[in-house]
Amino acid sequence: MPGHRDSPTDAEDDGERHEDALLAVRAGEGDEEAFEILVRRHGPGLLQLATRLLGNRTEAEDAVQDAFVSAWRKLPEFRGESAFGTWMYRIVTNRCLNVLRGRRPVAALDAVPEPAAPEHQASPARVAEAHAAVEALSQAMAVLSPEQRVCWVLRELNGLPYEAVADMVGISQEAVRGRVFRARRQLTEAMVAWQ
């Protein structure tokens, strides 16, 4: 059985894509084993995506599980116009967007504390500084709008082309470019003390 991919746009073997399409048809007819194969094949990549989008493993697991439940119900309607993996990416992305939109902002950008000056002599201090930098980035990402965060993660962390992000989020490529640009600018401003 092939391993999971990080994104649906990675080079997919035509045979695997065809196999996914057949499995999706069988699953749509009620074949639970076929659906289980699809879950095992695509679950790890989808969980990685959801974890990146939500920043919380438990919420990510819930979002992916909800997405697969939704997909199971909607499989009879799946026409195969896109690859099964792409279809699932879209469902997971939408689930994560709903979770992000439901959150209250964690902190304003000006509330993110400025890091202390680095102490490069002591290894524990460097470890603490690295941890603080990761925490600062996490806080900065938390104040991005859900739409900016999703577009930025799909583009910058998952390496998807603008066209694929636009398709998954359901907006134009220009809108994706604008959201990614604004997210980059906001994150750069929030992380200026770490540069």
Overview of the structural elements:
- It is a single chain.
- By secondary structure, the protein is mostly helical.
- It contains eight helices and no strands.
- The longest helix is centred in the first third of the chain and has 23 residues.
- The N and C termini lie far apart (43 Å).
- The N terminus is likely disordered.
Concise summary:
With 195 residues, the protein is mainly alpha-helical. It is 68% helix and 0% strand. Helix 1 packs across helix 2 and helix 2 packs antiparallel against helix 3.
Secondary-structure topology with pairs:
Blueprint: H1 14-28, H2 32-54, H3 57-74, H4 84-102, H5 123-142, H6 146-157, H7 162-169, H8 173-190
Rough shape? elongated
- Average predicted local confidence, pLDDT: 81
Largest sheet: none
The radius of gyration over CA amounts to 19 Å
The percentage of residues in β strands lies in under 5%
| CA distance, first residue to last residue | 43 Å
How many E-type strands?
0
Protein traits:
0% strand, mainly alpha, 195 residues, disordered N terminus, 8 helices
